[in-house]
Amino acid sequence: MQIEFQYGIKLVKALSGDTRVSMLRLLSCGERCIDELLQFFPYAKETVESELAVLCEAKLVEKRTVEYMDYYRIEPSSNNIVKNFLINNRIEGEDSSCRFVIPVKANTERRTWPSAVASGTTTVSPPH
Q1: How would you classify residue 57: left for phi > 0, otherwise alpha for psi between -120 and 50, otherwise beta?
Q2: Could you tell me where the beta strands, DSSP code E, fall in the chain?
Q3: Phi/psi at 86 (5° precision)
Q4: Residues contacting 52, CB < 8 A, separation 6+
Q5: Is the pLDDT score of 117 beyond 60?
Q6: Whether the predicted pLDDT of 53 surpasses 50
Q7: Is pLDDT at 67 greater than 50 in this prediction?
Q8: What is the mean pLDDT of residues 80-106?
């Protein structure tokens, strides 16, 4: 697969941030609205949207808006790139299901879904 140089730069930028990689892990389990994503990250909505915009610009994530609510999912055409990246960069002990450990700041109040552990991580399950 040959990647155009400018797109390659966007792709490297998108995959170089821990927050963006964590977002890809969450979205690999299925589409999520912005409010769901905000629960996982100790940042303002504008910051989370900015990180998602980088993923959208790299064509890794697709955004759709329904009645004032933004929804994000893995871009279907980039699904193989994302899957290969996540498989090759698994957290030790991580299985292949949609359960991931997402790093969050220790003093955040947003570790509410579905459970938080004292080590400063949140276990994430796929949406129902």
Answers
A1: alpha
A2: 32-33, 61-66, 69-74, 100-103, 115-117, 121-124
A3: -70, -40
A4: 23, 34, 37, 61, 63, 72
A5: no
A6: yes
A7: yes
A8: 57
Q: Cβ distance 24 to 82 under 8 Å?
A: yes
pLDDT recorded at residue 112:
38
Using a 10 angstrom Cβ sphere, with 0-12 exposed, 13-18 middle and 19 or more buried, the burial of residue 41 is buried
Q: Cα 109–49–35 angle (5° rounding)?
A: 50
Is residue 36 within 8 Å of 127, Cβ to Cβ? Answer: yes
CA 98 – CA 12 distance, rounded (Å): 24
Q: How far apart, in whole angstroms, are the C-alpha atoms of residue 82 and residue 73?
A: 11
Q: pLDDT-derived band of residue 17, with 50, 70 and 90 as boundaries?
A: confident
Contact by Cβ (8 Å): 118, 110: no
71 vs 28, more confident: 71
Distance between CA 14 and CA 109 in Å, rounded? 26
Sequence letter at residue 120: G
Separation of alpha carbons 62 and 47, rounded Å: 17
